[in-house]
């Protein structure tokens, strides 16, 4: 199983700013797999339906 890092932006406003600069988004969750920004849950779900999630996880 891979490690999961959770960053609570509500407890550290500087991390919110960092997230917005990295992703251009304000909503959570913002999901990264390795260095790849997947997006939010809807993006993750769409990636899975399109068959792109398993190859990304296999890296």
- Briefly note the structural class of the backbone: alpha+beta
The CA-CA distance between the termini, in Å, is 13 Å
Q: How much is the average pLDDT?
A: 93
What is the topology, as strand order, of the major beta sheet?
A: 1-2
Describe it.
The chain is of the alpha+beta class. The chain has one domain: Glutaredoxin (3-Layer(aba) Sandwich). The protein has three helices and two strands. Strands 1-2 form a two-stranded antiparallel ribbon.
List the helices and strands and how they pair.
Blueprint lengths: L12 H11 L7 E3 L2 E4 L1 H9 L3 H6 L1
Antiparallel strand pairs: 1-2
Entry summary:
With 59 residues, the protein is an alpha+beta fold. The protein has one domain: Glutaredoxin, CATH 3.40.30.
Using brief descriptors, characterize the structure shown.
alpha+beta; 44% helix; Glutaredoxin; elongated; 2 strands; 59 residues; 12% strand
């Amino acid at each position: 199983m891979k490690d999961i890092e959770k960053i609570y932006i509500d407890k550290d406003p500087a991390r919110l700013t960092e997230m917005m600069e990295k992703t251009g988004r304000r909503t959570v969750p913002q999901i990264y797999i390795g260095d790849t920004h997947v997006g939010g849950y809807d993006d993750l779900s769409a990636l899975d339906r399109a068959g792109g999630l398993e190859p990304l996880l296999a890296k």
